[in-house]
Every structure is written in C-alpha cells, then in structure tokens.
C-alpha cells in the first residue's frame, strides 16, 4: 500500500490547466533537452508520468519512453494525447512497480518523489530506479530544497507562489519531514477553490545516501534544468546519479 495521495478524476481533468506554467516552453524545453542528452537515444522510464508533460515531447525527440503512474485518471488524460503503443504506461506506485526491459535513463520530475511519504518508500524508489537502469545508466530527480530557513519563529507556512489567480503555501512538520501544499485558486466566477497535496521532503544529502544504498553514484547536481550551479542559496536541484558501467560484472562476481 503506497502512502501517496491518489489523484482522482476531477483533479486529473484540471491538471494541465492548473499546471499551465509548467508547460511553458521556457520551463519545459530545458528539461526535455537535459533529459534527451542524458538518454543518448536509449530508452527512458519516467516515474509519476502524469499526463505526459515531459514524456510526450521527450518521445517526440525519438527517445522511446515508458511510464509508471499511480493514478489511472491521470493516465486516461495522457491517453487522450498519445496511444498506448506510442507511450506505454504501467499503473502503480514508483517504489515497487516494475516494467520490462532496461533503460539508459530513469527520471522523476517536479518534486514528485516527495509524493512517497515515508523514507522507506523513497529508499525503495531509488532501488527501483537502479533495478531498471542498464549499466552506466542514470537516474535523474528534480526536487525543491525545503524552505525551512525561511521560517521565522512562530511561522507555520511558507508561500511558494502568490498571484492574483493562485496562492500556494507549504506547511512543514520538522520532526517527521511531512508537509502539505495548500492551493487557493481564484476561478472565473470569482469564487475560490481550495486543494491540497501531502509530501515528505528530502534534503539533497539524504537523496545521495538513498542513491548510495541503491548502488548509484552522484554524477552531477545543478540548481535547474539550465545548468545553473547549485549553491547553498539554491531553492531547487536537478541531481543525476549513475549506475556503475560494470554493474552486471560486479553482480555476477558476488558469491
């Protein structure tokens, strides 16, 4: 049983519109370019593929893409764009669901690994990625850096977006690393719709340890898809871990 929230049909139908900013070329194109370069033409596997925001343009670059997605309604939305033979998707959680074959690239974007709300599941997600990678393949995670430094004493929430159409706030539990994103959307009729999603935040160093447990080595960490250097002030990171090129040889040599 996964700890992730399950996106229902109503949420899936609104997803692309509510996430329109993430489809903008200046946001999406650098991500696709970055991932295409790492895939090197080989097959790619996306965890939490959603409605295909990244997978569809990546496949259009000639890279075979397979997906894993927990929410059937999200897959139904993807199917309105591309058929199963063009972009196969397995319905299940990204910690334990497997698909046939090996991949030169496995990736999970836009903070989605945080949807797994226990450390054990997140560790297993790294292991699942490693098991799907061919020797020398790479696992890529796009993730925000928890905004805990922005908490003054007594504050319980951190805003991550404030516009005339959308106000978003994150609340954190510093003991359990559990958090909730709260969204307030102003609709066309002037009313406000509230929604929320739960997550477990992960520090970059914690990600590196999870990767080591899965037999992966950090190869690169940048602040964004454009390759901006990652610093102590960065609010997000794109991290790349690599499976050893001789991983199969090492496995066969074990007693």
Please characterize this protein's 3D structure.
By secondary structure, this protein is α/β, with parallel strands linked by helices. Helices cover 27% and strands 29% of the residues. It has 2 domains: 190 residues, Rossmann fold (3-Layer(aba) Sandwich), CATH 3.40.50; 48 residues. The chain is built from 7 helices and 11 strands. The chain is globular. The C terminus is likely disordered.
- Which CATH top level class of the largest domain fits? Alpha Beta
CATH architecture of the largest domain: 3-Layer(aba) Sandwich
Classified in CATH, the superfamily of the largest domain is Vaccinia Virus protein VP39
SS element count, helices: 7
**What is the count of structural domains?**
2
How many angstroms separate the termini? 33 Å
How much strand?
25-35%
Attribute tags:
Rossmann fold, methyltransferase, seven-stranded mixed sheet, Methyltransf_25, disordered C terminus, SAM-dependent_MTases_sf, alpha/beta, 7 helices, 255 residues, four-stranded antiparallel sheet
Summarize the structure.
With 255 residues, this protein is of the alpha/beta class. It folds into 2 domains: 9-146 and 202-253, Vaccinia Virus protein VP39 (Rossmann fold, 3-Layer(aba) Sandwich); 149-196.
List the helices and strands and how they pair.
Elements: H1 9-18, H2 25-39, E1 44-47, H3 55-60, E2 65-69, H4 72-79, E3 89-91, E4 103-108, H5 119-132, E5 133-144, E6 157-162, E7 166-173, E8 178-186, E9 192-200, H6 204-213, E10 217-222, E11 236-242, H7 247-253
Helix pairs in contact: 1-4
């Amino acid at each position: 049983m996964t700890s992730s929230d399950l996106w229902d049909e109503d949420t899936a139908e609104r997803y692309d519109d509510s996430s329109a900013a993430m489809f903008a070329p200046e946001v999406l194109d650098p991500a696709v370019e970055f991932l295409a370069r790492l895939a090197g033409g080989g097959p790619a596997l996306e965890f939490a593929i959603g409605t295909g925001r990244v997978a569809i343009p990546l496949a259009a670059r000639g890279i075979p893409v397979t997906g894993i997605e927990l929410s059937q309604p999200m897959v139904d939305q993807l199917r309105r764009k591309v058929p199963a033979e063009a972009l196969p998707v397995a319905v299940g959680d990204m910690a334990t669901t497997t698909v046939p074959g090996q991949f030169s690239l496995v990736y999970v974007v836009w903070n989605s690994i945080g949807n797994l709300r226990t450390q054990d599941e997140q560790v297993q997600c790294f292991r699942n990625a490693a098991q799907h990678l061919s020797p020398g393949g790479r696992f890529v995670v796009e993730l925000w850096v928890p905004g805990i430094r922005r908490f003054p004493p007594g504050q319980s929430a951190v805003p991550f977006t404030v516009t005339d159409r959308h106000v978003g706030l994150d609340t954190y539990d510093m003991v359990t690393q559990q958090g909730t994103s709260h969204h307030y959307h102003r609709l066309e009729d002037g009313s406000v719709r509230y929604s929320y999603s739960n997550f477990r935040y992960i520090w970059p160093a914690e990600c590196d340890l999870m990767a080591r447990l899965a037999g992966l080595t950090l190869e690169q960490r940048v602040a964004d898809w454009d390759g901006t250097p990652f610093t102590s002030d960065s609010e997000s990171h794109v991290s790349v871990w690599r499976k050893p090129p001789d991983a199969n040889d090492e496995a066969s040599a074990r007693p």
